[in-house]
Amino acid sequence: MEFLYEYAVIRFVPDIERQEFINVGLIMMCKRRRWVRISLRLDNNRIILFDPQANIDCLSTQLKAIEGIALGDKLFGPIALLEPEERFRWITAVKSACIQTSRPHPGLTDDLDRTFERLFDRLV
Fold this sequence. Notes:
Elements: E1 3-12, E2 22-30, E3 35-40, H1 44-50, H2 56-70, H3 84-92, E4 99-101, E5 105-109, H4 112-123
Antiparallel strand pairs: 1-2, 1-4, 1-5, 2-3
């Protein structure tokens, strides 16, 4: 059985006006399966080379909060209690912040986890 999924790349954007970014994670959602998966990879050396003023601890804390919301951890507030597709939509909404996502992209797969891992390895 194939499942429709959506994914978005999570990005660190140190200077909004320049619109330059580093991919730091991936979030993927399948509404039919009520499934969300997120993974982060913070390459501190690369981030510091890209933005010497970056506060790695603050960035890490913000990413952990996004991860907690994506996974539905009630410690991260009322948004984390929403349905998986609503959490995904909240995380992928357009923002003017140092953490943004790409626009969501759809796809079909018969193996959500394998597809997630392939996308993560390729994009992050």
